[in-house]
């Protein structure tokens, strides 16, 4: 600093003095930095934690047969001595090799020893010769003989006992013991004591396998039982001949000591090691390394290590690499949308912190100008302001970082520390940078810088033009390339850049409405309107900065709210199209008629407001054998129309095309588009499973609740009864489907309704729209991303609130002093409240109107580049068609955010007026005299 030091005690004394002199401003800055640092530090941890949870869920939720590392060895060669071949398949040798295999699995790919298993099985299935076993088409069942380790620890004996093996089992042993699972026993008609004869060829007799026990698997869906599903559940297969014939495939579970006996079978005994991965330790950061390690084991040097541990012919097969790739594809699709929310909120936060610095610098303009006039250098003043800000911002950012680390689990700490450091630097630099910009040049002591009289400089024009180009590039890039082209921060910042450009335009246009409104107010006889608008117009340029932050925050909140609302609407719509109603009841055999008692009391089922029983006949043949074949839907138009009206699918008027039918004429029908095109407008004969029907298409509908996604032909049940023979009419009109509508939100008491349906017939199946909707969102990655997006929207709204509070604190002393002086001149409390309301409206109203318009425009501009299917629907849970989740502007979200700003602005003004009235004008004026003295 040149000349005389403006303060004593250096920067430390300056900082302490200033903080004691203005504790409210320091507290406001500290709270803002603390919250911003907490959010900034929490965001990368939340994102990485969500991706980690999703990765673990993807591996744990996948079929264990896909994720298991299936290590398969070769049969001991015939050139090896018989005793050595027997020992090679013994439990001791296989157990030692199993330990070496687990040790060969490299980090970060971890094995789950409890769900991993090893043993010997027949490489090819062998035929079972017993005629009492089921043979659907006369083909003998095919049996797998498996001697797998750990059966006692993974199964509960339901009947009999576990199998055992002779002390010296050899290739010539033909009598074996085995256990079967309860499912295998039930489907294959096996009991304890049954003897299954399997294998054998030429002069070698078949094995006689005596069943000693029936077991129930523990954790049947996990790796031990599901890496090879045949061990626990038999299945039907078909032969390759013409015509194909069905046969059963099943497994018999031997004692591990009986494995050498398989050397004598034609089924090629095969040692194996099924290594189940343990996803509990996986992290999102390890995903690329996991993929690389799987490839290393399957096709690289890791396979050599496995062969050294098990044998030269060992191979490893797994689909874990594909599971990881599928997860990565979903994560790559969802991450740009999450980044969009994070970048938008980050920009709003940065603008809010910069606004705070600008407001504080504007409030101290005279003080800083005096220091500059008394010889203070820009560097010296800036250093003291930096120390003053750092005394508040650095501890606040540290507390915010600690809070984020405590509140959000998972994720690496380095990114959080870096984010909090950026916030601390911004909090430290906001005040000195704003102050130095205002002090620079000869205009530091210039006169009043009113918002109305201000003229933008060339530097500001250049900066705004640059920002406009960036925003235009981001919007065009997002529309053309889409958000799935991840990693581009410019594209992620597109919504907030649109809001920022609109805010800068609004700040430039801000003086115009003030001038237009001030002219009639000046000619009016009232004082409050003119005085409030005059004070708003004479606010310094820093006074309009809240307008900029409010508009950006409202745009971000409106855009994010529209994304969330569009996701919810898409799930609701697809759930309705999937189920067709709020509830759907049908038999397992969809052609089976419903119980008459259930149909009769359909409207009185728990929670049901309207119901319709219909017949859906799927065996319908059109003239010319048109494909796809539509479903014939037979309905009671009155009941079906009432149901459709209550469920939002159109009322009875939509079904007027079904009648009346002329005597001896064709049945009027409503058809889907493709079916109507195939049938034309004239009379046609269609063939059902119960006989022909003459129909005539009278209307075309896009869809109907009974067949929500498919081709259909809708007819009146009464017309079918008049035309078809009695027996065929009874069949064609017997209801096979019950559709029910719940309350206005589509909610039904699922448990009570399910109990009522089960009481009518245990074989009926109830499908609820609410459950289908919940299934669409039942994926960790989508759920977490949606929560992060919602938190970002809430944070944007919170910054709008903080902006209003900080702006109120900034202008509170001046407004309080003005009200005190005006109260001495006769201003009433009611007029004081009205004055502050009028003064605050020129900032709030443009922000609200601009937020509505810009929020809608941002959605319309960016919607083509933001398909939301990957965020709205769980991967693999539903086949969502393209365009099933379009982004649409949500009016309620925009109105709620804008209305909240107006209400909060009014509340802040009323609180200020109340506090000023409570203190009284005399106390305020005496405080001013003391300050002057």
Provide keyphrases for this structure:
933 residues; alpha+beta; nine-stranded mixed beta sheet; flat; disordered N terminus; disordered C terminus
Residue windows where pLDDT falls under 50 for at least 5 positions = 1-9, 442-447, 928-933
Q: What distance lies between the first and last C-alpha atoms, to the nearest angstrom?
A: 29 Å
Estimate percent helicity: 40-55%
Described by strand count, sense and barrel closure, the largest sheet is: 12 strands, mixed
- Percent of sequence in beta strands: 5-15%
Q: What is the radius of gyration computed over CA atoms, rounded to a whole number of angstroms?
A: 38 Å
Given helix and strand content, the structural type is: alpha+beta
> In DSSP terms, counting alpha (H) and pi (I) runs of 4 or more, how many helices?
32
Give a verbal description of the structure:
The protein is an alpha+beta fold and 933 residues long. It is built from 32 helices and 21 strands. Strands 1, 2, 3, 4, 5, 6, 7, 8, 9, 10, 11 and 12 form a 12-stranded mixed beta sheet that branches. A hairpin with an 8-residue loop joins strand 7 (195-198) and strand 8. Helices cover 54% and strands 13% of the residues.
């Amino acid at each position: 600093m040149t000349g005389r030091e403006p303060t004593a005690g250096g920067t430390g004394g300056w900082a302490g003095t200033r903080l004691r002199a203005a504790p409210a401003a320091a507290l406001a800055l500290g709270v803002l930095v603390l919250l911003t640092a907490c959010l900034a530090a929490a965001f990368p941890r939340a994102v990485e934690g969500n991706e980690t949870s999703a990765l673990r869920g993807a591996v744990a939720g996948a079929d264990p047969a896909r994720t298991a590392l299936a290590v398969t060895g070769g049969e001991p060669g015939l050139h090896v001595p018989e005793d050595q071949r027997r020992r090679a398949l013994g439990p001791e040798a296989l157990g030692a090799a199993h330990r070496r295999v687990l040790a060969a699995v490299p980090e970060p790919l971890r094995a789950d020893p409890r769900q991993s298993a090893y043993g010997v099985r027949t490489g090819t299935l062998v035929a079972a010769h017993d005629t009492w076993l089921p043979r659907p088409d006369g083909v003998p069942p095919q049996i797998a003989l498996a001697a797998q380790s750990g059966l006692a620890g993974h199964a509960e004996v339901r009947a009999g006992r576990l199998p055992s093996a002779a002390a010296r089992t050899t290739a010539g042993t033909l009598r074996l013991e085995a256990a079967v699972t309860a499912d295998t026993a039930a489907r294959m008609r096996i009991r304890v004591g049954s003897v299954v004869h399997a294998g054998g060829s030429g002069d070698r007799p078949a094995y006689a396998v005596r069943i000693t026990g029936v077991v129930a698997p523990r954790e049947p869906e996990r790796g031990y039982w599901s890496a090879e599903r045949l061990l626990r559940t038999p299945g039907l297969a078909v032969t390759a001949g013409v015509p194909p014939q069905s046969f059963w495939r099943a497994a018999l579970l031997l004692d591990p000591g009986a494995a050498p006996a398989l050397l004598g079978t034609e089924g090629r005994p095969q040692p194996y090691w099924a290594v189940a991965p343990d996803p509990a330790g996986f992290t999102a950061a390890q995903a690329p390394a996991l993929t690389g390690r799987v490839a290393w084991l399957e096709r690289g040097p890791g396979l050599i290590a496995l062969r050294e541990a098990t044998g030269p012919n060992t191979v490893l097969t797994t689909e874990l690499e594909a599971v990881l790739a599928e997860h990565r594809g979903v994560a790559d699709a969802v991450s740009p949308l999450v980044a969009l929310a994070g970048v938008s909120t980050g920009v709003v936060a940065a603008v809010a912190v910069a606004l705070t610095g600008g407001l504080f610098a504007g409030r101290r303009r005279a003080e800083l100008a005096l220091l500059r006039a008394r010889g203070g250098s820009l560097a010296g003043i800036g250093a003291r302001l930096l120390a003053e800000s750092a005394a508040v911002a650095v501890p606040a950012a540290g507390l915010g970082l600690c809070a984020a680390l405590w509140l959000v689990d998972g994720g690496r700490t380095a990114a959080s520390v870096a984010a909090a450091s950026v916030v601390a630097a911004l909090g430290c630099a906001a005040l000195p940078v704003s102050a130095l910009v205002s002090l620079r040049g000869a205009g530091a002591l210039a006169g009043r810088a009113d918002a109305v009289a201000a003229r933008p400089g060339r530097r500001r024009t250049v900066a705004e033009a640059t920002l406009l180009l960036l925003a235009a590039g981001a919007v065009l890039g997002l529309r053309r390339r889409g958000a799935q082209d991840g990693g581009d921060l410019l594209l992620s910042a597109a919504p907030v850049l649109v809001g920022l450009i609109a805010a800068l335009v609004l700040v430039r246009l801000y003086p115009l409405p003030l001038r237009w409104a001030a002219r009639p107010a000046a000619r009016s006889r009232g004082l409050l309107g003119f005085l409030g608008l005059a004070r708003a117009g004479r606010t310094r340029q820093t006074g309009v900065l809240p307008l900029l932050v409010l508009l950006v925050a409202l745009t971000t909140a409106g855009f994010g709210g529209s994304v969330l609302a569009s996701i919810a609407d898409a799930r609701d719509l697809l759930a309705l199209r999937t189920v067709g109603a709020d509830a759907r009841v049908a038999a397992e055999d969809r052609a089976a008629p419903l119980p008459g008692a259930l149909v009769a009391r359909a409207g009185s089922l728990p929670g049901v407001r309207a119901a319709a029983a219909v017949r859906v006949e799927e065996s319908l043949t059109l003239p010319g054998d048109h494909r796809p074949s539509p479903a014939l839907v037979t309905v009671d138009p009155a009941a079906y129309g009432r149901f459709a009206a209550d469920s939002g699918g159109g009322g009875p008027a939509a079904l007027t095309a079904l009648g009346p039918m002329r005597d001896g004429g064709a049945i009027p029908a409503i058809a889907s588009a493709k079916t109507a095109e195939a049938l034309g407008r004239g009379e046609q004969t269609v063939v059902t499973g119960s006989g022909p029907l003459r129909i005539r298409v009278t209307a075309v509908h896009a869809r109907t609740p009974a067949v929500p996604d498919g081709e259909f032909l809708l007819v009146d049940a009464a017309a079918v009864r008049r035309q078809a023979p009695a027996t065929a009419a009874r069949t064609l009109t017997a209801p096979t489907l019950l559709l029910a509508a719940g309350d206005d939100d589509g909610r039904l008491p699922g448990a009570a309704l399910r109990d009522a349906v089960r009481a009518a017939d245990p074989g009926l199946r109830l499908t609820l729209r609410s459950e289908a909707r919940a299934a669409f969102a039942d994926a960790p990655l989508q759920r977490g991303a949606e929560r992060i997006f919602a938190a970002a929207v809430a944070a944007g709204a919170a910054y709008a609130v903080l902006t209003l509070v900080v702006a109120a604190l900034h202008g509170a002393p001046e407004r309080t002093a003005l009200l005190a002086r005006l109260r001495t001149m006769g201003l009433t409390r009611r007029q004081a409240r009205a004055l502050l309301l009028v003064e605050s409206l020129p900032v709030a109203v443009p922000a609200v109107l601009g937020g509505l318009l810009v929020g809608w425009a941002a959605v319309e501009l960016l919607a083509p580049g933001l398909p939301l299917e990957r965020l709205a629907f769980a991967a693999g849970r539903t086949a969502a068609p393209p365009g099933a989740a379009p982004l649409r502007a949500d009016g309620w979200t925009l109105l709620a955010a804008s209305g909240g700003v107006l209400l909060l602005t009014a509340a802040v003004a009323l609180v200020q007026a109340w506090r000023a009235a409570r203190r009284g004008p005399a106390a305020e004026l005496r405080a001013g005299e003391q300050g002057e003295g």
